[in-house]
Amino acid sequence: MNKVKVCVIGAGNISNTRHIPSLVKCAHAEITGLISDEKKKLARTIKNHEFLRGAYQLLLDKTKDIYSQLNKCTWFIDEADAVVIGTPPAEHFALAKACLMLKKHVLVEKPMMMNIQECDEVIALAKQNKCVLNVMHSFQFSNGINNLYKRYSTGEFGKLKSILELQLTNRDRRLPIWYNELPLGLFYDEASHFFYGARRFGGELRIINAHASFNDKSDSTPHFLEVQLMAGDVPVQMYMNFNSPICEWGLLLICEKKIAIYDYFKDILIVLDNDNQHLAKDVLKTSLNFTAKFWAGFIKNGFKMVSHKLLYGHDSCIRKFIDAVQGEESCFELSAELGREVVIAMNEVVKRAEGEK
Which end of the chain is more exposed for a tag (fewer CB within 10 A), N or C? Predict the structure, then answer.
């Protein structure tokens, strides 16, 4: 079977640390070109990945029509079957639309688009031109979430009673320079993970309430955001603090028999049993189990993190996308329909929270 020729659009951090390494791991994919709107980013990407020195390159002018520039690029028309888009969210629509118009298969980073109208237009265009349109909802395929879903599906945990999601973000960490231009700033860039995470274990998303407090009017990112929603018939609570001194993201499935705790950044899954009467011995047992499982996961994944081999499911997303391009059925977890559902939920939160600003 011939390899799928892929063009990487965007030469920033996510393209360099996730998309390109994941494409290299995929036996049925070949990177043929790089596209960016910054010459220095193209140069840096080539420096980081010497094997791309012979790849085609295109410097886009964002002030001009994207479709026209791509359509005039001979190598893009002839040497690209598909694209992986890793640009800021506000640029997703114009790039995805242009590529789909040129009948290129598209895998776009989260969040899929900025609003439902953009989602509907690219979905219709993909169907019209018989192209695969997938969204990089990567954490659904991280090692920890794969393990969690497998165990949850066996009935080991009992019935899912509720979901708790926690996000603590330190503004001192490396953040994209454009995040404050988005609705609710960092929320719109990062929250997709929490919405599709709840969707995976619960069901269709429905926002109940959203409350926010803000630092000041010039900062679009809230200080604190609380969201209540339903995922199917499962109640979900999200607590997001964007002024934290540390960064931690967590997903907790609170079930009849057990509680499952997933640590996003370290890709660690911890499952704890019912602590019965919460006596001293029960507390000690729970604490020892938590500590042992945390350190086992930390040691295992710490080496991967340091060596830049912890890809948080991006490699699985790339592989599944390439499989779909080659004719296999596209999975719902990467589908544009799920991407659309997440965008609708996020925009409902934005509407409610900005009303309080």
Answer: N
Beta bridge partners of 237: 164, 228
The structure's pTM equals 0.95
SS3 302: helix
Distances (CA, A) of 133 to 203, 321, 347, 355: 22, 9, 21, 33
**Model confidence band, residue 198 (pLDDT cutoffs 50, 70, 90):** very high
pLDDT per residue as tens digits for the range 128-162: 999 999 999 999 999 999 999 999 999 999 999 99
Please give the C-alpha separations between residue 330 and each of 128, 166, 338, in angstroms, as whole numbers.
Answer: 16, 30, 12
Assess whether pLDDT exceeds 70 at residue 188.
Answer: yes
Chain centroid to CA 199: 13
Q: Which residues of 187-313 form beta strands (DSSP E)?
A: 205-214, 222-231, 234-241, 248-255, 258-263, 268-273
Strand pairing class (29-36; 56-59): parallel
Classify strands 82-85 and 105-109 as parallel, antiparallel or unpaired: parallel
Q: Per the structure block, which two tokens stand in for 321?
A: 């996308």
- Whole-number Cα distances in Å, 154 to 41, 150, 151, 203: 46, 7, 5, 18
Q: pLDDT tier at 220 (50, 70, 90 boundaries)?
A: very high
Distance (Å) of CA 201 to CA 21, 198, 205, 233, 238: 28, 6, 11, 11, 15
End-to-end alpha carbon distance in the chain: 55
DSSP letter for 38, please: -
Q: CB–CB of 273/219 below 8 Å?
A: no
